[in-house]
Every structure is written in C-alpha cells, then in structure tokens.
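Exercise 3.2. Students should predict the tertiary structure of the chain below and write it as structure tokens, then compare their answer with the key that follows.

Predict this chain's 3D structure.
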Amino acid sequence: MSSLFSAQLHPGRALGFLVLGASLHDVLTRLKAEPQRFPKLDLVYSPTDPVKEPVALGLPANGIRLRFDGPEQRLRLIEILDFTKNHIFLKPANDKERDLVRPTSTAPEAAAPTDAAPGPTFRHIYQRFLGPTYDGEYVPDAETYVLSYPGVAFTFPMRRKDYSPAKDVVSLLSSTAIPSSMAVFSGDSWAQARETMWTEILPSLKTFAPLAKGKDVFPDEVSLVKIHGGGKLQLFRKWTNASFWIMLGETTPQQLVAELGPPDAIYRKNDQRMYIHKLRAASNTMARPSGNDLKRQDDLTDTDQSSHPASDDYDSNDEAVEDSTVANVSGECFYNYFYHGFDVLVSTPTTPSRPPPSQDGNPNIPEPPFRSTHADRLVATKVILHGNVPGSYPFNRHRRCRWEISYLQEPPDAAAATTTTTANSEMPFPEIEARLREEWKSIYPSEAEARQKQRGMVLNRGWGDSPGSSCELLGGWEESGGTNPGVGKGRGEESTTTLYGFPGLVFEVLKNGYVSAVTVF
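Answer key:
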C-alpha cells in the first residue's frame, strides 16, 4: 500500500516538489526514486506526434495527473483528480497550516484514509483555505463551473439549467458543493492561462524560493543547441541570454566543466562492433587510406557511444586493428550530462567534419582564439544530443535537448504568409533530410553516390548488443539483465531505429519519423 502523498501548495508555482517548469526527466526520476509513495506511473502521449503534442503523466495511486508540453517537456499543469489520495495544505506567511482536506490520521506514513471526505467543500475553499475571489467561468459543453484564483482553480460540476449569468458565485454554488478536480497553473486566472499554457516561458526553477534555499549550486539548463557545422555548436541558456561554444577538436574538458559543471557520470568503454563497415568502406577505395580517412569514412556507422580509433597505417590483419584500438583507448571517455540532455566524447584530437558549403568562410562563426598542437591532449570530439522521445527505447535516460541546424533554413513564403523556419528537433526527419540533401549535393559526383552514402542502417536497441546501445553510456544495465528504465514495464517502447549519416551528423530516427538522437562530430 502506498504512503499518502503530502505536499504544500504554492499557488502558481508548485505542489510540493512538483514545480511548474520542471522537466519531464527530472520529475520522472524523482517519482521513480520513491516507488512506495508513487507505485504506478501512467505515461500518455501521441504515438504519431510525441514531440509536438502534450504529454500526460498519471499517478493513479495518488490522485494526481501532470501535463507537460511536447517540445520542451516542461511541467505546465498539475491536476488533483482525487482528494482522498493525497494531503494538500497551504502555509501562508506567519500563519498556521491550512488543510485542503483534513486526513483522518496525521502519521507521516499513514495510508490514504477510507473514511475521509471526498473533497473540500466550496465553503471551506471560499471561507478558510484560499478566501474570496471573483466570479468563475461556466463551461456549458462540459457542464462545469471553474472557480479561479491566481495560479489555482477548482472545477465544480453544474448542470446547464442550474447556471445563470445573473447570479454570483455564492448564489450558484452550494456551500457543500465539492469540486471534481483542482488545477495548479501559471497565470492570474484559468481563463487567461489556457491561452498561453503550453508556450509561456516559465521562470527558472532557481527563482523558486524553497529550491533556492539549498546549498547546491548548479549551472542553468541548456535550452537550445545550435549546430553550425564544421564541428561548432552554440549552446544557449534561456534565462540568462548567454551562450557559449563547443568547438570539436579544441574545447577541453576543463572548459566543459567550467560552463556546464561536472558531468553526471563519466563512462569509459569503447564499442568496436561496427568496425567491419569502416574496413569495407576503406577497401573500396583505390588508394591506401590514412588513419584519419579510415576514421571518417562512412561516419554513419560511428554511432553515438564511441569513436573508432584507427592506426596511422591501415592493416587488414585483425590483430593489428585490435592493437591500434587498444593503443588509442587511453583517456577516452564520455562526459554524460543526463540533466542537460547530451553527452560529450572526450578523446585525443580528431579533425572535425568539413563546414557545409553554404557556411564555408562565414564571418559570424568564431574561430578558436588559439590552437594547441599537442597530439596527446584531450578535447571534445563528438556531442550526442538526446531527444528523450516518449515511446523510444532510451526514454528518460536524458532530459530532452532541443536543437537547430542553423544552416538549414527555409526562406519565408510571402504568398503563404510563412516565416523563416530552421530545421530543428521538432521537425520530422524526412523534411530535415530533404534540406540536407540539397545543402550537400555539390560534394558528391552524382545523385546515385549521394544516396548510397546517405542510406539508412537499421538498429534494434532491444537486443542489448546493438552498436550504439545505451548500455555504452550507462555502464551496462542491459548486460546485467536490468529492465528498461522507462515508465512501467511492457509499455511497447520502440526499439528499432534507423541511422542516417551526413557530413558531421548522424541521426537516429524512430519509425514515426522523429529524431531520437543526433550525433555531431
């Protein structure tokens, strides 16, 4: 039996530790850490549009439902659907706690009482809990009356014949009327909040006083990553108007830690299961390939968890390949930033991918102030941006990271009254692919060769030993027989994905056409 969820109401900001603006990843991680209190989690999302439509997270044992927007996956709405399965209280400044519904037992681990009132009465809400407010809003289609306060609203059932616009709220609602639900939202009223609920820029969690009292200091979340090509990424923070650059082959681990804080984990493991494709690609060329050529040949196979070091001189002998691999593993590791939504491969320097044709010589893209020539230094050589798409196999291992490919812009259409759109993390991959083919068509001798290089490769992450499997990032839970750390069991996650490679980019695409992860190298 679950313990009763007890939480302080902060109108317009939070219900206990459930803070408006918190990421889906953060909330799920916290809920899953307390299985006795939150024994069941029901995730509801659109299978066809999982990154555009809102995501709902139900807590049936606690009588609560949480709603997140699709693109950012931030908590936008907290709904109380059953008042008997939780204990909500308000603590005004310099005043005593006020219970929304008084539980029959005050023991900290008391189970939900069976003889508790089904919910707060209108009189209790209006007279004691929150006090008077303006007249509410009647919704005829749903036959409900919404009593709204700043940041909080209560929904009462009301038949059409019982409603009259000439009556005030006290005349319309019986003193013993019990609401069917309560909502916590950001806004002055429910009517006003509905218009901007899914798109409003919510304040940083750092400004929420109960969280700000903690001693831990952590960097602001990265809200957007702009991919400029040529191994250059610009990372933005929404609440500070500041950005910084990661330049592959130049940015050091010390610079990463200075900007992003220490990684949530450091993982050292190398995946060589796709090496055969590099050898075959190299053998199809007439000239003897160099180490860098072998490393960059057909980067479609260089999946998101490891780079594939090669010797300076290619040798088809298996032992030589193994020796060269072992010789280059030293110091190579992934910096896992689960709460930022990406991972960074730190290794000895490699030459970043070439800049896209339309960006070659762009003066708006900075160059590193100086270049180190030490071949054994460690630098960032690859970044993996995770989409955290609901229904995907690696769901909830990382926070969702939003990204844009800055050089893939669709010009505005005056006739259709459209604005400039940039290829981004919410765009179906076929649209991104069409723009990438157009951008890079000049580097291929023919259309046939371009399609050959850009063809997809299917992976099944559910097998546990597929290249680029997330066990390479998390330290092998698949190898140890663990279950998928998503929401619940047997939820039918999509384990089959397809990799598509372009210069400097590898996309992992789900069957619904959305990008689960993109690797920048």
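Discussion points: Residues 106-114, 273-329, 465-492 have pLDDT under 50 and may be disordered. Residues 318-329 form the longest helix (12 residues).
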